[in-house]
Amino acid sequence: MNTVKKFDCLIAGLAIFAMFFGAGNIIFPLALGQFALAKTPWALSGFLLTAVAMPFIGLFAMFRYQGQVRNFFGRVGSIPGFALACLTIALIGPFGAAPRCIALAHSTMSTSMAKIPLIYFGLVACILIFFFAYKENRLLKLLGYFLSPLKIGLLVWIIIKGYIEAPAAVTTTSASEVSLFFHGLKEGYNTMDLLAAFFFSPIILLSLGSVAKDASFDRFLIYASAIGAALLAGIYIGFGGLAYLYASQLTGFSNDQLLAAIAMKVLGPYAGIIVSLTVTIACLTTAIALVAAFASFIHKEVLRKKVGYMPILLTSVIITFALTTLEFQGIARLLNPVLAICYPGMIVLTFYNLLFPSRQRFKES
């Protein structure tokens, strides 16, 4: 690829990372490190399968269907597939993952800075989400050029400084390596990234515009996705290791407060500002992508463009704001049992569509 395409590929890769890296991506690798201690690599190996490998396999599978969600889910039957698609997008959109992102940002800010009422914090966050998601075809550039590089820089700063100033490692856990591997495998479900991949695909294809018409587009997608996956895996490994090294100092903190607690240990008086920026940007970028994906699906697939994108987006943001008031733990209690049932089925559907694609996949639904 020429220099311009390489730059576009890098920007697309950064944007893909930004879309995936939200609330669950911050919390669960930290919780794994705190739980698995010296055996964290075993837990992370399972986690990386379901939280990195599977989401990007799902992304490739959707690319083979040119981002046509209805056709992808339709392999289980027209009506059941459509119902499954609606359930999935609702879970990752305003009825689950999006408000979870905002709730985590608020929880972390409250831990490291002056407490702000959730209702005011959520209102400001939802206004910003609406602003960034309004221009759907510009979303990838907004994430790639601005929000993603800032987020990566802040996360890497915390990880590097944390390893440099880490205390002596704590003792290992009595749990077996195999049990920790499967624990990590299951924890990867909670990131919800495989579900998100199905609906990020149409946004990515739309945002790439003219690049999508190039003959080398498939290779472009592979390179951009590889950049996003590598960044995601690197942050997970860094966070898991940090939580292990600082585990003895994290007693009494809930999962949604772990990053703030570590950052206050590592960054001292500047922790409040750095953590707030890091988590807020990380969660905001993913919430933008999730709400935009939900609004786009309702606009195109459910209402068949009979209602404009803007009123649907506005309604989506209002629902997101309402669910945010349940706080992080309340949202998690609603999501966990549903994900335990849905996620394995989605993995099977992904591999089936990838290995045995429909001959009719490129027709308009």
Notable features of this structure?
365 residues, single chain, Amino acid/polyamine transporter I, 15 helices, 76% helix, mainly alpha, globular
Task: Explain what you see.
- The chain is an all-alpha fold and 365 residues long.
- It has one domain: Amino acid/polyamine transporter I (Up-down Bundle), CATH 1.20.1740.10.
- The chain is built from 15 helices and no strands.
- Helix 2 packs across helix 11 and helix 3 runs antiparallel to helix 11.
- The longest helix is centred in the C-terminal third of the chain and has 32 residues.
- 52% of the residues are buried.
What's a quick, concise take on this entry?
By secondary structure, the chain is an all-alpha fold. It has one domain (15-355): Amino acid/polyamine transporter I, CATH 1.20.1740. The chain has helices at 3-20, 23-36, 40-64, 69-73, 78-92, 97-112, 118-133, 139-164, 177-187, 193-208, 217-245, 258-267, 271-302, 309-324, 327-355.
